[in-house]
Amino acid sequence: MNAIIFSVIGGVVMMFTGIITQQKKAIRNVAIIALIILLLANIFDTYGILSIHIGTHGMLNFQKFGLYFNTLAYAATLLFILISGADVTQIGEGKHAAEFFALIFFSLSGIAIITSYNSLLLLFLGIEIMSIPLYILTGGDKRNLKSNEASLKYFLMGSFSTGILLMGIALMYGAHGGFEISAMKPSAVSNEYGILDPLGLVLVFIAIAFKVSAAPFHFWTPDVYDGSPSVFTSFMATIIKAAGFIAFIRLFDNKYVELGLSWRIILPLVIIATLLVGNITAIFQQSVKRMMAYSSIAQAGFMLFAVFAENDMAKEGILIYTVAYSVATIGIFAVLEKMEDISLAGYNGLAKKHPLLAATNTIFLLSLTGIPLTAGFFAKYYMLLSVIKYGGSTVTWLVIVAVIFAAISAYYYFRVIQAMYFKTGNPEVRSYNKGFCFMLVILAAITILIGIFPTIILNWFYF
Amino acid sequence: MTGLYTLLQINQLNNTAENYFPIGVQIIFAIGFVATMIGLSALVGPKRKTSDKLENFSSGIASHGNARQPMAVKYFLIAILFVLFDVEVIFFYPYAVNFKFLGWAGFWEIVLFVVLFLIGFIYIIKKGALQWED
Amino acid sequence: MSQLVYLVPLLPLAGFLINGLLRKSLSKQAVSIIGCGVILIAFLISLGLFFQVKANGPIIQTYFNFIDIKGLNIPFSFQVDALSVLFMLIITGVGFLIHVYSTSYMHEESTPHFARYFSFLNLFVFSMLLLVMGGNYLILFLGWEGVGLCSYLLIGYWFKNTDYNYAAKKAFIMNRIGDVGFLLGIFWLVAKLGTLTYGNVFAAAGNLSAVDVTGITILLFIGATGKSAQIPLYTWLPDAMAGPTPVSALIHAATMVTAGVYMIARSNILYSMSAVTENVIAIIGIATVLLAATIAIKQNDIKKVLAYSTVSQLGYMFLGLGVGAYNGAVFHVMTHAFFKALLFLGAGSVIHAMGNEQDIRKMGGLRKYMPVTHITFLLGCLAISGIPPFSGFFSKDEILAAAYAKNPVLWVLGVAGAALTAFYMFRLYATTFLGSFRGTHDQEHHLHESPAAITLPLIALAILSVIGGWIGIPAVMIPDANAFHHFLQPVITTEAIAEMPHATEWLLMVVSVAVAVIAILIALGKFTKRPELNEPQGLGGFLAHKWYIDELYDAVIVNPLNALAGFFKNIIEKSGIDGIVNGVGRFILYSSRQVRLVQSGQVGSYILFMVLAIIVLVLIWINDGYIYTYLSKIF
Fold first, then answer.
1. Which in A130, A432, C62, C552 has the greatest CB count within 10 A?
2. Where in the cell does this protein reside (chain A) (predicted)?
3. Interchain proximity A12–B119, CB inside 8 Å
């Protein structure tokens, strides 16, 4: 409960900070302090210290897994604000810095609800609380037409998925006579609910698949990620997307331990479609930002394996994947934010002029590719292993397909590395300070550290 | 009467194409009826073709200007805010009905609810959203 | 003493590392002392081990688990028993003499190359020791590959000469062909018995079926034909004479080429179980004897003659193995090591004196210029020709006697081979040392006896060539005097040669010696005054061209393979594989370009696609049973 309360308070505090002061640096510092408090409050809550309890009549169910995910998400947000906070304050002529932070906090409170929901109503509320601030953040650059267009598209399509989600919830309510997922029995086991329950579940699945941009519900992703300010793309593509997977995992967790036949067809289909669309389309992109949008679709394909496998290993895997993917993507977007020209050609010869940027960026890209000794390798490794544990030899083909797509992904990630190191050019880079370099090194260090000791994250989980 | 009864009987017995015959008859009848009526009224009714018939009007007064004129965004802002606070009031109705049953706990919760809205209200005023003149 | 076993191979390895790594900084003298010293110490330890083995039986030392996986444990162990200690003595003893010889012979090389030569030579000794000391087939195989590598490196020692490199490659590839067979044999053993340790393999050999035994032994024998230059894989050995002469003496006469004999003698329990394999070995052995001997008759390069003689003598050893005379074969390995090393070193001495001239038609009358070389070479020739009481007589006689017991035809062919041997050896001797000098005036001016570092090993080997056979005197002459048989008794347990009447055995000996003497006399009479200087014609030309075997191999195997490789490279690789690989890349790029177009930016079309997808998913969900059935039918 701490996470929800403190994130809402944090949001309100940020709102009024914007009224009290217009100093960007002060706003940013307040945000960082509020986030640290939020992070600590959640960590305390995880281990049962100083936790606030409010009766929710079983609508929320706090489990260690969800709380621990909150910690990781907030820590990632902290890293994000530390490295990109200054850029957040610049967006939209710099008039709304405090509001942006407030919206991020509200979004975080949505995440806190998603990671702990037990009632489908709260799933709906959580997803909406998480998403609506994002619609605004996407349009944060008010005078930029692309930003406006992205915002409107996101909102339109988001409402569409909300409708589907509500429809699904309604059907499931019809079947079970209640919203609590912990009270629902697997329909695969007993067929007493008829068509309502599975159909409802399909619709809820589709709505969440939309949020995590799984194909074929990914269409909003490239346009929105491309149009919105880069810093917010970074936030949306990492922390928000990972939260969507937690919604999935909680939905399928104890309810559908033995997934029915239809899920064994639908899920692989969605996974392969996601990998296919993400990877294949990313290859041809000339803009690094748009390429990263497709890359995030491709990565979602990998994270969907956790939903498919739905075992302990998958849960551990999604935690590692969250950290690995978030850290690397935040880093890449932080560098991207400093580039004047975000097309591939804009990166030409970066290694000569800004070796640190190029080197850390390379580490992040390698991590996304899944090269050993980076966090991304273990993230993918856990995902595939969890599927093997779940399905054994019957899913080998799926793993092979995934590995092939991982190989394809190397093509477009390495194109950036190639541009930075092996092409000559005159990249124009905005000024950056020592603190930025320091944060980049920290992010790279985390990537490599987890790449060597992936259990660091998991040890905390079981602590 | 007997014929219709027989049809119904067949319908219950087995599910073949011929059993849809009555439905088909009904559909054809419905479409035919509608088409006939429209056709008849078009043929029989009086017709006066003047440009005046195509004019927009309201309550017999001729319109002037285009309805799709740009308006100040403030209108929308205030309208949205009005809806927001108006909806808040709706939540008081169920509370009022259960006022006694919920007791003090319910009271503090509704206070929290109102405080949250007040915070929003203060924020709106401080931000100058309700200032009509810039 | 037994705890020093590991030092025997380790010392040459240390020598290899020191000489190899410090070749730029060590002086020639230091290199010589290190190179020869490590071998000498290894020899002394081997000698100590010899007496211990003689007194206390075999030593088996296990150091660590080399390969330890489920169901297969191969330890890194050394087995020093009668057979291996004998080979160790030959390797380190003859090896030491050849090292000493090399210090003088290779003295004209520049210092780094001199050190390189000695490091390779030490590495060779190390590998060869590993081969004979290994306690299982895998260690043997490690050494087997190691000597193959060293042979390649030393044949191509003068790497600036393309022909020499070609010869080195030929040797390596020929050996690899044999190695494939050897490896397959090892795999078969592992598959059937699950162990490679000698003791366990031989103890469990009785469980093998007849097919298994024949298959394994034939495959191992294929390995031996490569390493020991037997038909059909012998053609690399004559070309291997491209290496420095001491290398030819050590590797291609005394030690490496006898590795196959060692391996088969070591596995005598397996081989004696398969009559088929024994017959194959005997036939290939005698065929090699005759083929190589006939070729040797018409060769004019002094080292080529000796090379073919080596092939021919190796044929005798395999004949011995094939007829079950394992003792005789190993005995012949030993005597052959003495006299063939002697002959090669003598030839080296001649070549050295002649200023790197190898053609015997340009020599002649060297007797008076090089007395020590002459005498020792003559002793070597007598030994190889099987004249009593020289060493070659005893070993060859033992093999021929066993061959007669098996099948008199083998004996007749063997004696014919012996006659040819005597003939070509004395043709070589007469053309080189007798008559008058036929070289240039300049060469004659420089003719001189070689220095002590060359002559001393010659003398030592000459003495061994004379008396070396006396440890294996047949029972016919002096009963119970065969110390050699007695010593090898624990290892070679399966020798079963039919007893013959003493009169028959005496008769066989007399006939073979008489035939050899007649051949010697003919050769001396024919070539002393009028040596063969013209290019041979007709049958002689056929023999001089080595039966056109190399050309045959080129035509039948090499050229078709080259053509096939060209086909693969130009057609399959370029158009096929490259096409597929690049095609995949192009296809993905193309599909990327197409898939991109779906992302039109129109919210309406996006939502349309999503609705369609929802409908499809729901349809799949409703019909999951059918779809699953069809899918499981397809896959």
1. A130
2. Cell membrane; Endomembrane system; Membrane
3. yes
